[in-house]
Amino acid sequence: MGSDSRKERLPSVLLGSKGHQVRYRNRPYERAKGFGVLLQSYTTMLVQKALWFERSLFVSTLLGLAGTAIASDILSVAFYAKEKNQLYDFISANGEIDYGCRPVVMAAEGEHKLHAVISEEHYDHFKRNLDPEVVRVETLHNLNKRQTATAPIGKGDRFKGGKVAPRGLGTRKPSEYAAIQSAGILNADEVYTAMKGLEKEYGMPLFTTPHKTFEGATVIGGVANKAEKLKKDKQYIYFISGIHARERGGPDNLIYFISDLLYANEHRKGLTYGNKTFSNKDVKTALGAGIVFLPMTNPDGVRHDQANSNLWRKNRNPASARPNEPLSVGVDLNRNFDFLWDFPKHFNSTVAPASTNASSQAFYGTAPFSEAESKNIASVYDQFPNIRWYIDVHSAAGTLLYSWGDDVDQSHDPKQNLNNPAYDGKRGIVEDSGYKEYIDQADWDKIRLQANRTTEAMSSVGGRDYVPQAAVGLYPTSGATDDYAFSRWHTNKNVNKVYGYTLEFGYPTNFYPTSEEYIQNIIDTNAGFMEFILTAVEIGLKD
Fold first, then answer.
1. Active-site positions, per UniProt (predicted)?
2. What pLDDT does 143 receive?
């Protein structure tokens, strides 16, 4: 499954986490000092499979030179185990598997499940070799077959170059949803013209971020508030979406939410999302908080994914690409932020919260903020220095994640913190007591209150249940936007403290929603955005 700069790795399907075993049909393979102990007779076969998987997880035209859809053998699966630590072992042994935004483990009728996207050949391998009494794998659906039922990408420009403003679902009757549903997911150009339409219709200020993407795109943002004149120090809410290109509908969720707020404010209306309603007073309160948003932070990746329907996740920067390895194009932007980015240094050697392998879906880049897109997202904190609450919109898990993501939270030992080099090499083992990430108890209480309120609002809509949880979950991450947001103040007390979250809408691995799911995702997230802002106002926008 590729190699890591800190060590040569044998096929990750053979590796277990330190002190544990991953059992393959009653044949245990144990990791000793970070390396797998293999049965010699299996080495050649599994090396070949690992190399095949790395190079052939998706079709060979991911560079975009010849567009194609998802390969016919890409499956959405779930791994099941009775104990969480069994899935932890599995993730440690199979770090290069595509777990979506990050590994998320959920309760499942007396056991635990972990969603992933894998090839049919890799699925067959796991079926043959995993001991189902420990970890078993089951198919959820074939993504290629499911793709025929997914929501289409919009054609043309429904906003006519910005002459027409978008209008969301919260100010419409359910009978009117069909127009948005039939028009499909916003194409990349429509994200820009929608923003121009909001500027024209409501006078919403737009701004450009300073760094052009590899393909020359400019990332634009908007500011929604009640003030007649923009005051950059009076904006306290920051939302982004579209950082992972394949997570379709993220930009739409944000644009339609802002559209709802502006329309409802001008027409003195409230908002209705399924069973959840908000008054016009709530609308004015939300706008009064000042909302900065970047609806499409990875335009190159979004364009590529929409053109090819190949589940493209990263940006399109080829700086680290290798010949004949199309998967090596691009960086996972959500591993490129300056939060414990140098994971081989900061984390225990048995965990991989990101990847040094350019072909990995979680490739972390060449340096923190090596990418234009991540620098653009961070630049907003400089433009709007008093931002206090932040959401990075993703799919697809049905969760709201809060800091920390590198290890389990604790509030009793402030020495165990991200800036203390004494704990380098000890982070990331969520099962142990050797290191846990410090968080002030007052901050912890605020963060959890916000997460609980927001997910309760989303669940009350009537579409599905959403779950609040710490970002570390079962397995750590590094370089993520939400942890970067919260860590800024912990590293430099001269900047504002920001409470960072990741909202994962939709159902696990449904990166391409059906038309019905697309509408439900808008409703769910918009209710969540609204509750998030109102709760932020209640908890506090300032020190």
1. 504
2. 61
